[in-house]
Amino acid sequence: MNALEQIQMLQWLLVDINSILEKHSISPILLEDITVTDSTVSDNVKQGERLSSSIINKIWPSVENATVFHYTSKDKAESILNSGKIRLYTILKRYTDNEISAFCEAHSLNGYLEKDEHGQEKYKTLIMPNTFYSSFTTTTGTTEQEEYFWRNFAAIDGVRLKIEVSASNPDFRRIVYPRKDGEPLALLSELTTIIREKYKREFILTGISPLCAFFLLKNTKLSLSLECYIDTGVMDQSQKAMETSTLSKFLWVK
Fold this sequence. Notes:
Blueprint: H1 3-23, E1 35-36, E2 40-42, H2 50-59, E3 65-72, H3 74-83, E4 85-87, E5 89-90, H4 99-106, H5 110-113, H6 122-126, E6 131-137, H7 143-153, E7 159-166, E8 172-174, H8 186-199, E9 202-203, H9 208-211, E10 226-232, E11 241-243, E12 247-253
Parallel strand pairs: 2-9
Antiparallel strand pairs: 1-2, 3-7, 4-11, 5-6, 6-10, 7-12, 8-10
Helix pairs in contact: 1-8
């Protein structure tokens, strides 16, 4: 490909990307917002990561303030109230739910599905040990939905805490459910497909690793809008908690 052909290819690539963004009501990007190599299209070295940020905030918008329910056992509720902290759990606890693998399979993140020298899927060693979560529900569920959460997360002597959340971390987001199991998210799939098939390159969404945790199959959870706080990075035990400066106004509701 000569210089002129390279320029034309980049122009058509930009047109195709912006066409998809416009379809999903996202502002267009400029050519300087992305890096195009012989094998990839990305923005991870660009200031602000405009393309990736636009996609993430469209699919998984951050929730800055919300009143939510947290279903838990009586003992854990007392610990929360006494310490002023909600403990974050490693997402490895949900390994058997196949949530991460479902996202990787639906969006062809084949690198994470490969096995390492110990026979473990790479997502289990690269994503899950460094991702911590706590789950919440909205306060607008139906009686059937609320009964499900009582039964599965606060059975017998369980407690429901009503909490007002002011999130200082952008990764307090609403869970996304696919329209049907195994179906990829349309915006992400359309971009990945056209870049792969038309331009023979892979699209790399900056920050995609923790986003796997915000994608649940409908057959694994009751389809109620569920909000999770996800914290990522290598942390010691003393750091795996949310302080009451982030969570405020606890109410004990039975």
